[in-house]
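User: Reviewer 2 asked us to show a designed sequence for the structure in our supplementary figure. I'm pasting the structure tokens here. Could you produce the per-position amino acids so we can include them in the response letter?
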């Protein structure tokens, strides 16, 4: 009978003793390495100023609750400013366009119609109650003035003389009489002659003016000034008219007598018209 033989495990070799260097490293690691981070508190940084740099993707974009209202106010301000800026620019542009359109329209009307101011002259004067040799201290003269309004320079423009105009005659700066300018319409290339009565009260002259007036009357050349202020409208066809503007005419004349029908010699008339606007009636 054959005996079964089992192999025996080889005996384990005894662990070799650690070297002196390894013992020192293990001891140092045991002394310096904490067992768990929670066993020790956070390190205390020395006092001073520090600069902390945070990446852009980690910056919080949501404001804290105590600053949320102020953030919404400041965030909405640029949008309001943009709207106001656009509204201002739009208004200024619209006004500029209107001004340019009005200027172009006025220029076109002027080129088409060529408006001119009417001309005025005094045909004759009938004077009563103006005697330089009179003993009265105050005079009340009455003058009938024949006026000629000439619109012959305008081929396409009519003139509408409205009510409320005034005519007055003066001598050496002293007003003698005043009256109303009649209202009427004047067609293009038309000459209109009319007569108006002027009256004055409380007219007085000093001694020097009386002597000068008597000398000029003897020389049959008494200078006078006839002035008129008339509200008018220019008529461009049947549709277009102007605003009512004041036309002031000043005529220097010389008369040969101070009583009765006097012949008036015109020495020139000046006409001034204030600027005006245009509109469609």
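Assistant: Here is a per-position design you can include in the supplement:
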């Amino acid at each position: 009978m054959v005996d079964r033989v089992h192999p025996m495990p080889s005996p384990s070799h005894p662990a070799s003793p650690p070297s002196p260097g390894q013992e020192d490293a293990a001891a140092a690691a045991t002394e310096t390495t904490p067992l768990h981070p929670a066993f020790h508190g956070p390190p205390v940084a020395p006092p001073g100023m520090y600069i902390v740099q945070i990446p852009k993707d980690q910056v919080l974009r949501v404001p804290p609750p105590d600053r949320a209202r102020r953030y919404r106010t400041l965030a909405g301000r640029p949008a309001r400013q943009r709207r106001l800026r656009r509204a201002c620019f739009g208004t200024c542009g619209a006004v500029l366009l209107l001004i340019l359109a009005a200027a172009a329209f006025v220029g076109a009307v002027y080129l088409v119609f060529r408006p001119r101011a009417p001309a005025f002259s005094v045909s004759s004067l009938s004077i009563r109650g103006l005697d330089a040799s009179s003993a009265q201290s105050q005079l009340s003269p009455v003058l009938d003035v024949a006026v000629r309004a000439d619109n012959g320079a305008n081929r396409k423009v009519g003139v509408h003389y409205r009510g409320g105009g005034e005519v007055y005659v003066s001598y050496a700066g002293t007003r003698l009489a005043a009256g109303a300018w009649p209202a009427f319409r004047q067609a293009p290339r038309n000459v209109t002659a009319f007569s108006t009565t002027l009256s004055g009260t409380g007219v007085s002259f000093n001694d020097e003016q009386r002597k000068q007036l008597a000398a000029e009357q003897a020389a049959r050349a008494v200078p006078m000034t006839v002035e008129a202020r008339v509200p008018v409208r220019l008529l461009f066809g049947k549709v277009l008219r102007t605003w009512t503007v004041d036309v002031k005419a000043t005529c220097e004349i010389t008369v040969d007598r101070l009583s009765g029908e006097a012949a008036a010699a015109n020495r020139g008339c000046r006409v001034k018209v204030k600027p005006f606007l245009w509109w469609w009636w």
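For the response letter, you might also mention the following. Residues 82 and 88 are 10 Å apart (CA to CA). The first strand starts at residue 119 and ends at 128.
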